[in-house]
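@channel anyone free to eyeball this complex?
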Amino acid sequence: MRFELTILGSGSALPTSNRNTTAQVLNVLERFFLLDCGEGTQHQLRKFKVSFNQIGHILISHLHGDHFFGLFGLISTMSLVGRERPLHIYGPKELEDILSHVLKPQFDKPPFPIVFHSLPEDEIGIIYEDKVVTVTAFPLRHSIPVWGFKFSEKPRLRKIIPEKIEEYSISIPEINSVKSGEHLERDGDIISNADLTTNPLSPRSYVFMTDTLIMKKYMDILKGSQVLYHEATFLHEDVKLARKTMHTTAKQAAELAKEAQIENLLLGHFSTRYKSDQLFLDEAKAVFPNTTLAIDGLVMSWPENNSEFSIKMSSSAKE
Amino acid sequence: MRFELTILGSGSALPTSNRNTTAQVLNVLERFFLLDCGEGTQHQLRKFKVSFNQIGHILISHLHGDHFFGLFGLISTMSLVGRERPLHIYGPKELEDILSHVLKPQFDKPPFPIVFHSLPEDEIGIIYEDKVVTVTAFPLRHSIPVWGFKFSEKPRLRKIIPEKIEEYSISIPEINSVKSGEHLERDGDIISNADLTTNPLSPRSYVFMTDTLIMKKYMDILKGSQVLYHEATFLHEDVKLARKTMHTTAKQAAELAKEAQIENLLLGHFSTRYKSDQLFLDEAKAVFPNTTLAIDGLVMSWPENNSEFSIKMSSSAKE
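replying in thread with the prediction:
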């Protein structure tokens, strides 16, 4: 029942030897979402051993090249390795036309079903939902239209205490109703649900916000999220430049995480103008201690049962 | 006076860890031509320490993704690092429209002058010429329109023997006429040009042919070329598949090199279906011994003066 994020690219517009342009894969209970797809994302998927075919959904935050120029090559490669299952792409409406122009010379018709979903303009909207997860898009503010995304696991059923099933000879239909929170009746007595079950794992969630001025209007979306990825293109000494280029500073992102009571803040999209990325970490930690710098190959796993939040490097990151 | 080729990507459609998709840089006397530009070419340029700004001309052989999907990111990066000088792009006519669609969201207007040149359809044509080099495009045969390219150094002036300048007090205007092959007159006598000069270096040339059925009709173009790069997607055991997919086998490429009396054959674009690339080399060498397999980072330098042909790996290839 994994809820796991793999960073494929953590840099800003100029790729460097250890930070490719933006791309992440989020695995929500074996549904794989690719968030942004900078040039070279197919190389990073291969490097970090993420199966191309597992990816069912690609979400593109905006149409600056460092967030989507890898989409064309990834689709071509998916075709070459024999993909047949549909691919859902969510992005600014102009992306559909761009894709068709770029791919037209090599494909008379789409090599496998590609379902394009335009992101909702100027409003918050659910863009994907199934029985375990809801994905919400919400507009951010940058030099061109850009969206943030929230992935929310749906509330789970209560966990029945195994010994109680035998003790009260609970039938399968009764198990389902007890898991839903109902009490049990035995010989005219009511056995309280609290005596039969324990609390389920709290729904897990992830918020992705990149290439935006700092925005504090989405507290309702952020509150209760365990992890926020936020861009931090600049240090706060360059806050004027951040405003001018419509980006965020590490300090601003940390303040947002603190105010929204996020558990873990993940920063990325660092400008290459500074001498060390450690400066971003120091600046953010002064405001919000539980900050981590994204790096290509980092894998973050949300806790399950009584386990801890895990942040480690992919085993293939050092190859 | 370098004439030097650097292989940036030597693979076919699926990039692997040591062979990226097609791209090469040819330096002809400090004019830098980029031949094809698969996804990740900007990463390879950086890896092999080729300056982005030096590249004046980009030639795209055809519109399959593994030959041009890196163009968008490279242009974006050139803009970010402050390029101002014009960039000339030569490609199938549809490429101009594709470029404008893809780059439109991030650039209101081109970030630096981009001059697009459509390749001549169904005929051989000179696409670039200056005082030292001529570049010719010629149509090949693949599933979509594709072109080969020839780079020919122009004949050089004869080399004047330094001691003769003093001996005959040759003036500067006379030096230029002697270099052009004329005789010298002194006191009514004719001093033969052969006594004053030595032969110049023979003009150097390079032919690039990728993604094509084997074509023997271009012997006039090939004859006298020192180096031919040819695709060898398949081994000859799969010649039927090569015909069906409109590619070439290693043996066919070697036979072409032999018939055209090429000096050096460089093979690339290998299918990943075979267990070792050595098989391509063995097959080609049986027909044409002077064959080399292209590999990312390989640098081939044409001889100058009395030096030898040099084939070595870029010093940064192993980093």
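from a first look: Chain B has ten helices and 19 strands.
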